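Reopening: structure tokens for the 5'-deoxyadenosine complex, inputs below.
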Amino acid sequence: MSKKNVFIETYGCQMNVYDTELVKSILQKAEYKIVDQESTADIVMLNTCSVRDNANRKIYNRVHEIKKAKDGKVSIGVLGCMATNFKTNLLENKRLGIDFIAGPDSYKHLPNLISTVTETGIKAFDVTLSEFETYSDIDPVRDAGVNAWIAIMRGCNNFCTFCVVPYTRGRERSREPKNIIEEVKRLVKNGYKQVTLLGQNVNSYQHEKYDFTDLMKMVSDVEGIERIRYTSPHPKDFPRKLLSLMSERNNICNQVHMPLQAGNDRILDIMNRTYTQREFLDLIKEARDIMPNVNISTDIILGFPTETAQEFEDTVKVVQEVEFDQAYIFKYSERPNTRASKKYADDVPEKEKTRRIVLLNEIQHDIALRKNQSHIGQIEKILIAETSTKRSADYYQGRNDGNTVVIVPKSDAYTKGDLIDVKIHGATKNALQADVV
Ligand code: 5AD
Ligand code: SF4
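Re-run output (same inputs, fresh job):
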């Protein structure tokens, strides 16, 4: 029998990108062929995200679109964070068009789920969450590139009241350091220059006596690894010793993503973030004392239930005071099961949320532009990643140590995956322009 072709479409965060790479590996071992076009696929999987979007409708539409394009001759699976959500719908409504469902801890069962569907026509699902599954025995099938994602822990125990992740991805569990280090070594051997360690909350990493800083030290010691990044930490227990390690090690990038979420103490409290504005500001100060030029990015939610215009001003104040290099700003979106959804009505009017997001983005764009302009004239090292998506095919784009996008003209002297010195001569709010020195 010829191998069945599988196409996977990925939505959402980097953890999902990584999970798709795990799924590809699991399926290839089970004699499926991964294809990069929907048109040649016998099976299409959508690896979904439910963190912010009300994406249910989007996924339904995609399912119908795919069924139509393939004249019904396709099996469709839903993976990822929307899996649990969709299971109930699948059982209630047989006409949905979805054939099988696998939650984030069930990917090893995919070959079984698929054969159930293709051999018996019976719809199949597994959305059980595990306290142990870390997929440490699976070697992801990565696209050839310069950066490799590595999940070092999965799940989250924090229960921020707005967040659906603890429900969709389950409890925290960490991979064994030895196993992670072996993966990093393999990646170096295969030509990857950069690894990004992933976790819903990386500083909760704990495996026996090893914590996140210990793990970073071990990864940094791997010979040949040029750049190490990680995301995302939580400000409540960000380890100070990690800041010292970052400043000492050349191969740990000069970048911290520090999710603020809100600048007002009452809102932080009802979000269950367990830090205050003062504690957040002190942490930023400490980071900058130890690494004066550290690139700091953040996530912000505005319009959390009951947030007044006055309380939102505290978030504005923190943004102005900290001057983040990048900020990802979101309107609060009510998520099923979360404590916030049970306790509060989503009571900040849409119009007011829009006013706040427009205002905060304007402020942040000015800051980002100013911060990027301060790079002009400097010599910086960039890792070339790909042909520029922003400028034109005559340019490459890469990232500097702090993770800002840098655009350079193409030349025969260097190519993707090279680390080169460039001189910055221009800046926008999103990127730097440079020439090779
Ligand atoms: N509404 C809006 N933004 C959210 N995020 C998580 N949950 C929600 C929600 N319900 C944002 C947070 C988080 C980022 C990944 O997504 O800012 O840090
Ligand atoms: Fe969600 Fe908070 Fe866990 Fe991040 S730390 S995944 S925001 S619950």
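The chain has 13 helices and 21 strands. The first strand starts at residue 5 and ends at 10. Marking as resolved unless the reporter disagrees.
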